[in-house]
Automatic annotation (TrEMBL):
Gene Ontology molecular function, alphabetical: cobalt ion binding; oxidoreductase activity, acting on the CH-CH group of donors, iron-sulfur protein as acceptor
Name of the protein described by the UniProt record: Ferredoxin-dependent bilin reductase
Source organism per UniProt: Ruminiclostridium papyrosolvens C7
GO terms classed as biological process: phytochromobilin biosynthetic process
Stored Pfam families: Fe_bilin_red
Amino acid sequence: MRDNSVFSSNKKMIEKEIKDGLNILNNSYKLNEINCGQFSNLQIQNIAYNIKQYEIVGVGNLLLMESKDSPELQMLSFVITPYYKNLPLFSSDYLFIGEKRNFLVEYYDLVSEKDSLYNSYLDKLRAIKDKYEDLPDMKLKECWYDSLKTVCIAKKTTIAQDDIMLSIFNENLHTFIETEQQTDILTESEKKVKCQITRDYVNKLVDSGGVSTNVFKNSMGAESTKKFFNDVFFGTEKF
């Protein structure tokens, strides 16, 4: 039987993370919502997901995917795919199953090279990770893209630690913005290279599979998953 107070608390937590994330971004950028069309709502393994996509002007694609009303799994994915700067993909997933929480903050090096500013950014992300090393780790399955993940925070928490979980998300997002604003804009040719690196990663994600990607593929089929990923989730076709 579902504990309605916990379910309601989880829903409010997801809504707060979305509100905080958008407020933080709106303080520094203009956000333009993009119509997701057929991908605005998805049904995956009996879980209904609501999806929103934004252009972060001058930065790239923002994906918000949530299932806050699902009794099986309440979750939020908050993913920024940069196209205009030499920055990693920033992916954040929060999963709520009753009072249990898993959260995952990952950075993927979808760049042609790492300069000193990029490496100093990674050092700041590692410092955030170290700050919360006492939280229990969430075990992850090994996958082909692990070599691209320079920094990954994967933790398990309880309902009593929701403020900590939110604070880790906010710290990571603020650090991303701080570095983005210090980073030079890419030239047109550099932008094309970055876009191609991202597109190659996205297509390989579908072709070779991934932990969560396989769930999409099994439900939607490979071609629909590839279209969803390129059009909406990572926005490669929009940038």
